[in-house]
Design a protein that fits this description.
This protein is α+β, with helices and mostly antiparallel strands and 126 residues long. It has a domain at 1-61. The protein is built from two helices and three strands. It has helices spanning 6-27, 74-125, and strands spanning 33-36, 39-45, 51-57. Strands 1-2-3 form a three-stranded antiparallel sheet, with no helix packed on it. The chain is elongated, with a radius of gyration of 29 Å. The N and C termini lie far apart (109 Å).
Length: 126
């Protein structure tokens, strides 16, 4: 009995999901354009009426190469992504707070300069 290679099994898996999603989208009125063996494109229109495409790629990752090549772990990847998003949000919040402080400091400095200038002008006139 001949065995099927892992590569062939992955190809079959990827193709079956690509076909499944393509069928679902086609049944919901979408035009499906097959652009590569693992990719479909959907012509669409954005909120302002501009023509665009949404491209969906399908892959079955094998993991890292090399002697200690760890198998792909989707759960770990999802956790890493969640952590990166939280870190990015925290950095953006920190940057916004820094900017707000700088704006307030600059405003106070401008007001102090204007006040000093007005006082100097008043002394010069009086």
């Amino acid at each position: 009995m001949a065995t099927i290679s892992r590569k062939a099994l992955r190809e079959t898996l990827r193709t079956s999901y690509l076909d499944l999603v393509s069928k679902f989208l086609a049944e919901n009125g979408e035009e499906i354009l097959r652009t590569k063996s693992n990719e479909i494109a959907l012509p669409c229109v954005d909120a302002e009426g501009n023509d665009d495409f949404v491209v969906i790629s399908f892959k079955v990752p094998t993991g890292e190469r090399g002697e200690d090549g760890a198998a792909y772990d989707g759960y770990a990847e999802a956790e890493d992504y969640t952590l990166k998003c939280a870190e990015k949000t925290a950095k953006a919040k920190e940057a916004a707070e820094k900017k707000a402080k700088k704006i307030a400091k600059d405003k106070a400095e401008r007001e102090a300069r204007a006040k000093a200038k007005a006082e100097h002008k008043a002394k010069a006139e009086g």
